[in-house]
Amino acid sequence: MNRRRALACVGSALLAGCLSESTPGGSDPAASNATNGTTTTTEHPNTLTGTPASPTLEIPDENHCPSFGDSRVVCSVDAADGTTLQMVPSKTRVDLPKATVSFTLRNETGATFTTNYYGWSVWKHVDGEWFHIAPQIVPEPAMMLESGDSHAWNLTVDNSDLDAASARSQGTDDIALVGLGGGTYAFGIDGWFQKGGYENAIDVTARFELNGDDLELAPTADLEVVSRDGDEKHVRVGDKKRRTMVATRVETPTTDAKRLLPEQVVRSALRNLLASFEPGVRRVTLDVNRTAIYASEPQVIEYEGQTYRIERSG
Questions:
Q1: Which of 82, 139, 297, 302 is the residue whose CA sits 20 to 30 A from 38?
Q2: What are 273-292's pLDDT values in tens digits?
């Protein structure tokens, strides 16, 4: 289950990766991001006996969905009629600010598909790249989808309370996601057949559109401004200083900045840092709960056209 663990850690350091739509076998986003060891591990699969051999799937060379790594991808918009393993959306276009769409994973391959129903992923497509949005932390049980069976996820997007945005997986059936703006998205899961093993994983994904306004980042309701001194601003969450994060505007970055979307930032500890910038502010210091998830090493990010250096202390 090493691959599943790596995917669970994709966003645990706040800096979720992206890959080009034109590179379906792109690099694993987990490999380029730090982790903080917060992933929950539950159980590992046992070897099954009597399972049919790994089936042959017709997978087009062209792929219009994200890949979780170097896997083969079965994308809903590319799959031919009669594809035996696919993710089928109930709708391909829904309207914000509140929208519900279901995704059904169907297995008609003649073999058991091993996966993790907690391990669904939502990605957003921006400027030719796919960005992993959620979840960033998942439990890891192995689950078996027998041939002839299906499994459905009911995804509800509701932006009425952005403070409820979370990095964690919210279930295996009914999912509530907060903080998705308008745009092109994909919902998918990965798994494998017994004979091929998880080293030969397959991603099964469906694209869908959210019609609505862009997501506007705002601080959480419990954020307090401690002080403003010239171009520096000090803010905090909670009554006690437990750990400090600092974001500084960078005019000439020396390393490649990792681009982040509002949909990623809103469910991370970076939210209150970046939302606290205003005209004339060059640096923001945030006192935050010690349990906040973020990378331990300094990071350089690009957000909304501006580059920042993110550091922590304590």
A1: 302
A2: 999 999 999 999 999 876 66
Token output for 180: 């998705």
Task: Using the predicted structure, report yes or no on whether residue 67 has a pLDDT greater than 80.
Answer: yes
256-294: burial string, b at 16+ Cβ within 10 Å, e else: ebbbbbbbbbbbbbbbbbbbbbeeeeebbbbbbeeebbb
- Paired residues of 190 in beta bridges: 203
- 98-107 and 113-115 beta bridge pairing: unpaired
Strand partners, 147: none
Whether 249 contacts 308, CB under 8 Å: yes
Band (pLDDT 50/70/90 cuts) for residue 45 is: very low
Q: What percentage of the chain has pLDDT greater than the value 70?
A: 78
138: amino acid identity, one letter: V
**Average pLDDT of 105-123?**
95
Q: What is the mean pLDDT of the chain?
A: 80
Instruction: Name 133's Cβ contacts closer than 8 Å, sequence gap at least 6.
Output: 16, 121, 122, 123, 124, 180, 185, 261, 263, 264
**CA–CA separation, 285 vs 247, rounded Å?**
7
Q: How far apart are CA 240 and CA 229, in angstroms?
A: 21
Give buried/exposed letters for 1-33 (b at 16+ CB in 10 A, else e). Answer: bebbebbbbbbbbbbbbbbebeebebebbbeeb
Nearest alpha carbon to residue 303 among 287, 268, 295 = 268
| CB distance 138 to 39 below 8 Å | yes
Residue with tokens 């009911």: 154
